[in-house]
Amino acid sequence: MTSIEQLQKEIDQIKKRNKRVELDKTWETSWTRRIVISVFTYVVIVLFFHFAGLPKPLVNAIVPAVAFILSTLSMPIIKRWWVKNN
Q1: 54: Cβ–Cβ under 8 A, 6 or more apart, which residues?
Q2: Cα atoms found within 13 Å of the Cα of residue 2, Cβ hemisphere only
Q3: Structural domain boundaries, residue 16
Q4: Distance separating alpha carbons of residues 15 and 32, to the nearest angstrom
Q5: Is there a contact between 41 and 68 (Cβ–Cβ < 8 Å)?
Q6: What is the three-state SS of the chain?
Q7: Tens digit of pLDDT for each residue in 55-79?
Q8: Number of structural domains, the chain?
Q9: Which pTM was predicted?
Q10: How many angstroms separate the CA atoms of 76 and 59, rounded?
């Protein structure tokens, strides 16, 4: 038979897991994450454009970084539509 202490321990473990999952979800939709990925994208594309000898790598690399931000902004809209239709 399960004791009260064991049940409490299981509840505590579930609460810790739920907190971790909530933090992961918050991170996935955070502006901090979006900005960090955009900056990394920008830097990688600048380096690629530079070594590929393409003109104005600092200016032209803005397009992919902005495209990423715009794509993340459209996701909540698409998700609501998908949830509604499934």
Answers
A1: 60
A2: 7
A3: 12-85
A4: 25
A5: yes
A6: CCCHHHHHHHHHHHHHHHHHHHHHHHHHCCHHHHHHHHHHHHHHHHHHHHHCCCCCHHHHCHHHHHHHHHHHHHHHHHHHHHHHHC
A7: 999 999 999 999 988 888 888 888 8
A8: 1
A9: 0.71
A10: 29
